Amino acid sequence: MAGVEAMRKPSGVAVGIVESLEDPTGQGKIRLSFPWMGPAMKSAWAPVSTPLAGKDRGCFMMPEVGDEALVAFEHGDFDHPFILGFLWNGSDLPPENEPQMRIIRTPGGHELRFEDKPGAKKVVVKTEGGLMLTMDDAQQSITLTGGGRAVTMQSGQVKIT
């Protein structure tokens, strides 16, 4: 009994694998498996922490099934997990390896990129299909690209190519 009780009262944080996003309550919770505890061990539905959450507002970005999650348990109670964040690992790598880049990329390939390189700062919004909006501080330009064409605004001029 002591071993089972110890498994039910985890201390610290743990790594779990996202098993399901189908929260029956519609509250944006996820369910995890814990391979290190055996194939049958699943979490209760766990809320996902986010930088902002409130009535009709917030930051909503759910993981994918199979992602690694860093989970803690309220007062060490295995039945009350909450997700602290998600982890890259040896097989799932970050979308970029440049420290001066900030990227949000969806599984479908849409991307919001902030490039903070000295002298080359820009913001890029890109769709999976290749449509793109680039705001380039170094060039003092805004460019819309799509369908093999581009519209650039720079120095009070508009150029269509």
From TrEMBL:
It comes from the Bacteria. This is Gp5/Type VI secretion system Vgr protein OB-fold domain-containing protein. InterPro entries: Gp5/Vgr_OB (IPR006531), Vgr_OB-fold_dom_sf (IPR037026). It comes from Gemmatimonas aurantiaca. Gene3D superfamilies: Gp5 N-terminal domain. Residues 15-88 form the Gp5/Type VI secretion system Vgr protein OB-fold domain. The lineage of its organism: Bacteria, Pseudomonadati, Gemmatimonadota, Gemmatimonadia, Gemmatimonadales.
